[in-house]
Amino acid sequence: MTGKLMGTRVQRTEDQRFLRGLGRYVDDVGVDGHTQMLHAAVLRSPHAHARIVDIDVDEVLDLEGVHAVWTHEDLTGPMAEPLPLLIPHPALTHGRTQYALAKDEVNHVGEAIAFVVADDRYVAEDAVDRIRVTYDFLKPVVGIEAARAATDLVHDDVPGNVGARLEQNVGDAPAAIAAAPHRLELDLTIERSACMPMEGRGTVARWDADLDRLQVWTSTQTSTGVRAAVAVKMGLDLGQVDVITPDVGGGFGVKINHPWPEELLVPMAARALGRTVKFTEDRREHFISSAHERGQVHHVEVGFDDDGRLLGLSVDFWHDHGAYTPYGLIVPIITSTQLLGPYKPQNYRVVFESLYTNTVMVTPYRGAGRPQGCYTMERTMDAIAQYLGKDRAEVRSVNFIQPDEFPYDQGLVFQDGRELEYDSGDYPASLEKIKALVGWDDFPTFKKAMAAAGRTVGIGLACYVEGTGVGPYEGAHVHIETSGKVKVATGLTTQGQGHATVFAQLVADELGCRFEDVEVVTGDTRRMPYAVGTFASRAAVMSGSAIHLAAKRAKEKALKIAADALEADPSDLQIVDGVVSVKGSPGTAIDLGTVSVLSNPLRYAFDEASKAATQFSVGDPGKPPVPEDEEPGLEGKDFYSPERATFASGMHAVIVETDPLTAEITILKYAVVHDCGHLINPMIVEGQIHGGVAQGIGGALYERMAYDESGQLLNASFMDFLMPYVTEIPDGIAIDHLETPSPLNPLGIKGAGEAGVIPSAAVFAAAIEDAEGLPITAMPISPSELFELRRHHAVPSEGTP
Q1: Which of 365-374, 424-433, 627-636, 764-773 is the least confident region?
Q2: Side-chain half-sphere of 503: how many Cα atoms within 13 Å?
Q3: Alpha helix locations (H) across 70-120?
Q4: Which keywords, in A-to-Z order, does the entry hold (predicted)?
């Protein structure tokens, strides 16, 4: 493949392997060559809140096939201490994390209590069933209302169940609201949901006693984070631990938390037993012991003028972070700052409380607080438009940050602790594109025609800005082999985003090699020991930039070595399809494989007699074979560390039809305009958008975590947890791109991975409200809930009390 690849719809190179069933996931590790592998199972609490009085494992110890059982009493040293608080924050005054195995108390259904290792998973689960635990039951706290009431406490030492309170102010919002010509108040709710990756969590570990070394395979979004945690908890040097992330069947945020208890317990068991040990999470375990998100309640006060221009905005909200806070305050901080979207409210006050409940902990889930913030802001914009009798797009337009105002400082502190400064964008242009794409101006005529046919339709619009590419860094290593093949390693992990394709495009463009000659490895600490991870729409910005810089270094070295060999000036050389030649003189050339041979003064002659006889190349007399400040080999390594996040943006619009009898909601048209700066591969970006929209539809219309008052999750299976099928996703999603390049990185790119899901709750609430003429203030919304909403707002007939 030749020519410029940046911006080209290159087919994904990884797809054939997956489509042919040749993917290799954690549960596939050990299928070949590990016949002595043992399997683990976990005893999980059936209660939401209880003290552990006693754990009796006597019935397990003599069970044939069982090799070991651990409870917290069996853990020692760092393993017996709470798991790390990954992202501390000054406002998180009462942060709490779980133990690898519960100590003294359980705080949600599904919390790990005991860990069993046996010959196979069947025996391990049978053993788990024989463990007897005596509990002293405590009153559970379920939901934000119960947490705020603070009649009962999740943790005895956390007053009012408040883990954190954070306030940020720009200007004087209360005074501006009080003085505004018009004022509104809204109460808006989003319920809990969760990602459901096809592959649950899983970990395999092998201890090599001869090498005093641990190998761990785990389904994670941060292999280097797991490596560091395992090393610390097990008292090992970092260099003694290798973490390999094979294919990952979806992450969506739940696998960014590290370490999960099993990521410590499995390696501990492998070292203790001298055997390879595997744990694979089942689906019910994922429901009750992995992470959830989304659950928040918001109170909005807004003041505005006759044009709908924001004069003051005040938002109080309450965030349900579950029983523990391993990921700190990232989700509510993102909500509080990204809520502003593409607008400039002039005066803004935001206060949130992050609350403990006896439910599964919260960590970021695709969108990570932004869907809640977008929902709050966009519902506010719709309410202003309705109050003034104005077009909803017009009200948004008068509040936009203008293209000539970038960079635009919102005056807030973002999730990375740096200023919330938007780097680039053109929101008016995006609005015009989305209106054209969905047929906004023609919709009133369409609505009248549908009404005449007895059909009810509505249209919704939602705008968002997404902070992407947060630091602190990512690195890359580009190595040109003597075969001419190019091996690329970066430390972040891959969960289906198409990294192998887009990163190869960047290397082929910068280095001048053939796209087909580039091989990309991610998530292997043996190849790239320092990395951060895949989350926050950061892969293309962070690793893409690092790979570009590393390829540039490799190219500079290749040109320098080739120039010596060709007796030419490096500036006169070019690399095309892996061949270095003198510009205008293609006959004077040398391929990259040969350049790689020349880069190493220690070469090898292969023949039948010697097999591998070493040859030493003296080079020029009087010069060292390896020049000063250089290394042997043809490779480049670099790291990219941004000064702050980049800010992508977009707008979604949807037309829905609501059934007059069943209240079923049907999508007639869905449109997206997205700006992620320069596009590396438009096809892959559009695939990310399609997936995000599908996930957003699920979150807006189907998916929720339904707890009862005792803390039991009532829908912890795919029989009960509703997800959209392909029949619920629109056949065609209309997509248009806007490219406003970021000035913050060498490629001018911004992230795209979460964009599709961010505005979903907002855009569907708007469309359903437009169709029904009823206020939509809680999401997700099901047909039964819409039916009840209709009944609640129905005008009583004459004589009806």
Answers
A1: 627-636
A2: 35
A3: none
A4: Molybdenum, Oxidoreductase
What DSSP designation does 11 have? Answer: P
Over range 585-590, report the average pLDDT: 86
Are 589 and 616 part of one and the same domain? yes
Cα distances (angstroms) measured from residue 235 to each of 85, 100, 326, 699, 752: 18, 16, 21, 42, 39
* Under 8 Å between Cβ of 385 and 395: yes
Separation in Å, CA 464 to CA 35, 121, 345, 367, 780: 52, 46, 14, 11, 19
**Residue-number span of the structural domain to which 79 is assigned:** 36-138
Q: Is 2 exposed, middle or buried (0-12, 13-18, 19+ CB in 10 A)?
A: exposed
Q: How does residue 731 score in pLDDT terms, banded at 50, 70 and 90?
A: confident
Per-residue pLDDT band at 31 (split at 50, 70, 90): low
Cis peptide before 140 (omega within 30 of 0): no
* Shared domain check, 592 and 503: yes
Instruction: For residues 375 and 32, give the distance between their C-alpha atoms in angstroms, rounded to a whole number.
Output: 49
Task: Kindly state the DSSP code that residue 382 receives in the 8-state scheme.
Answer: H
How does residue 741 score in pLDDT terms, banded at 50, 70 and 90? Answer: very high
CA 286/CA 757 separation, integer angstroms: 21
In a domain, 436, yes or no: yes
Secondary structure string (H, E, C) spanning 185-237: EEEEEECCECCCCCCCCEEEEEEECCCCEEEEEECCCCHHHHHHHHHHHHCCC
Confidence (pTM): 0.95
732 shares a domain with 614? no
* Residue 257, CA distances (Å) to 85, 456, 462, 554 in order: 10, 44, 30, 34
DSSP classification of residue 523: S
- Are 648 and 675 spatial neighbours (Cβ–Cβ below 8 Å)? yes
Number of structural domains the chain divides into: 3
Which of 162, 153, 133 has the alpha carbon at shortest distance from 60? 133
Are 481 and 611 contained in the same domain?
Answer: yes
Both 675 and 614 in a single domain? Answer: no
Partner residues linked to 573 by β-bridges: 582
Residue showing tokens 């932004």:
370
Burial of residue 657, with CB atoms counted within 10 A of its CB: 0-12 exposed, 13-18 middle, 19 or more buried? middle
Clarify whether residues 455 and 544 are in a common domain.
no
Give the other-Cβ count within 10 Å of 122's Cβ: 12
State whether 601 and 648 are in the same domain. Answer: no
In our burial notation (b when 16+ CB lie closer than 10 A, e otherwise), range 156-173 reads eebeebbbbebebebeeb
Q: DSSP secondary-structure letter at 403?
A: G
Question: pLDDT confidence of 617, banded at 50, 70, 90?
Answer: low
For residue 223, give Cα distances in angstroms to 321, 476, 503, 637, 735.
25, 15, 19, 19, 34
Reported as a pLDDT band with limits 50, 70 and 90, residue 587 is confident
- The CATH number of the domain holding residue 412 is 3.30.365.10
> Which pairing describes strands 733-737 and 665-675: parallel, antiparallel, or unpaired?
parallel
Contact indicator for 207, 267 with CB cutoff of 8 Å: yes
Q: DSSP H helical segments within 453-570, as ranges?
A: 499-511, 544-566
Q: What pLDDT is stored for residue 500 in this prediction?
A: 96
Cα–Cα distance for residue pair 444/33, rounded to 1 Å: 66
Could you give the C-alpha distances from 557 to 428, 480, 489, 597, in angstroms and in order?
45, 11, 18, 13
